[in-house]
Amino acid sequence: MRCSTWEKLLRHYGVTRISADRVVALFREEALTVAPGATAAAVETIRTALALLEVVNAEIARAEKQMTQFLDALSETEAVGGGAGATAPDPVTILRSRKGLGDKALARLFAWGFEAVCAGDHGRLRAASGAAPPSGCSPESATRPGCGVRCPTRCSRPPTSWHAGCCAGTRT
Fold first, then answer.
1. Cα–Cα distance between 158 and 160 in angstroms, integer?
2. CA separation, residue 18 to residues 6, 8, 15, 66 (Å)
3. Helices 103-119 + 38-81 axis angle, to 10
4. pTM tops 0.85, yes or no
């Protein structure tokens, strides 16, 4: 590649520690001499890593599809459960219409605060989402599910930045 191409590339990514002339000079230097088979081993390692990444990406895509199907089914269940005279949309449809709230965040919200969503309990929703610390929590200690941290505010919310701070250093 020419020096001007490297200049554009470095500028695009905001790299200032090295100049384009230095990059060109480094690529023109003699290549390292490695032991026999080292190149083949590196290629095989990269192939293995790529195969693992393909499996991981397939599993992520499958999980996202399953999560979307779950939310669709939950939305249909809510719509059916509303009855013929119901005019209000179900909670899933309402929350899906919010900007910035994707299916991952929505599924997490339903996993941690389904009763609060269905009941329209905004205080519990704020506490479950991590928007604000809950008011009036009991000072008794309880273990937050899944993390083994003793929480002085007796709550069963997902870990959040403010919540993790109140439990700092209190491992069980």
1. 6
2. 11, 13, 7, 46
3. 30
4. no
